[in-house]
Amino acid sequence: PVGLSASAFPAKLWRLLNSPRVRSLRWDSQAQGLLIDRPLFERELLRPCSARTGGGEGAGASPDSFKATRFGSFVRQLNLYGFQKVPGWVGAAAPGDAGGWLRFRNPNFRRDRPDLLLRIKRLTRANRQRLAAGLEVRSRPPSRLQQ
C-alpha cells in the first residue's frame, strides 16, 4: 500500500507469504494468520552468517531474506510488530502435511487486506505507552537512507 516502505517488516512478510517461491511460510486456513515451517524457514529465509561477515550484500542472501540469523530473532520481530503465537498450535498447514508448523496472528495481517498493513506499528517503548494511554501510535519517520 501507498505510505508503507517495501522493506518494512510487515510488508516484506506479507509479500513472502504471497510468493509461490517461498515454501516455508503459508497463510492459515482463514488467511488471517501465518504458518511457519521452522526448519525450512531457517534454510530458506534467514540470512546466513557469512552474508553479514565480509561476504557482502548478496553473498548467499536473497533480497527477500531477513536480517536475522536466528529463528528466535525473527520471532522477536513478529512480537515487536504485534503478532502473537497461537498457543499450543502445532499442526499441518495443509492436508497431507506431517505437521510441525507454528502459527502466528495479528488482526491487521490478512491476505485479502494489504491496506491493513499500515496499521501494524513496531511496538517501541514509546508506542506501548501511547497505546496504554489510548493514543494513536505513529510510525517512525523514514531515515534519510530510506528516502
Automatic annotation (TrEMBL):
Belongs to the HSF family. Residues 5-123 form the HSF-type DNA-binding domain. GO terms for cellular component: nucleus. It is found in: Nucleus. It comes from the Eukaryota. Keywords: DNA-binding, Nucleus. Gene3D superfamilies: Winged helix-like DNA-binding domain superfamily/Winged helix DNA-binding domain. This is HSF5 protein. Its main location: nucleus. Pfam families: HSF_DNA-bind. SMART domains: HSF. GO terms for molecular function: DNA-binding transcription factor activity; sequence-specific DNA binding.
